[in-house]
What does this fold into?
Amino acid sequence: SAVISQKPSRDICQRGTSLTIQCQVDSQVTMMFWYRQQPGQSLTLIATANQGSEATYESGFVIDKFPISRPNLTFSTLTVSNMSPEDSSIYLCSVVGQNNEQFFGPGTRLTVL
Amino acid sequence: AQSVSQHNHHVILSEAASLELGCNYSYGGTVNLFWYVQYPGQHLQLLLKYFSGDPLVKGIKGFEAEFIKSKFSFNLRKPSVQWSDTAEYFCAVNDPGGFKTIFGAGTRLFVKA
It folds into this structure.
């Protein structure tokens, strides 16, 4: 199994600012993903973080708003830029390990005032 | 495009009642199917998964699910629920090559003691 940690675990931010969320995995993984879980809703895939190339974004998500870095096979960051209250959500890092099993980090709970 | 539909948003049961949560997916090819559980205040955990083989899969905590290909369904069942099963349950699907996992809207289960 893969153990995933995220920093910060939660934050309260002011409108217009940016927050960078870090995701660290305890083993090298090819596939890393960023999801968002808005209050009372299901998980929505934001993007696939690709090592050595630009992230692949899902419909409705753009790089300017959610820039992603993936410098190596164990680490990725997601930045939520120019935040508004609508960005209040839980942001989850996820990886696919051996046997195609998907693992999720504990999430970062973001509140934007 | 892939999609996942969960039939019930909220389910309330008494302890010892039987549980069945419906899940249907839309995808033309081979899929991997999952059920995840999210207990209050905790992060997602995998309950069970289907990749191939026996369409009746058994997971943790007495849960099982049956893949019916002709109906594009993957319903979750448990013969006798407990108060500790109170949680939100997510059905999810990905394709074996892409790993991009799509989640259903979730079903909130409340078990009365």
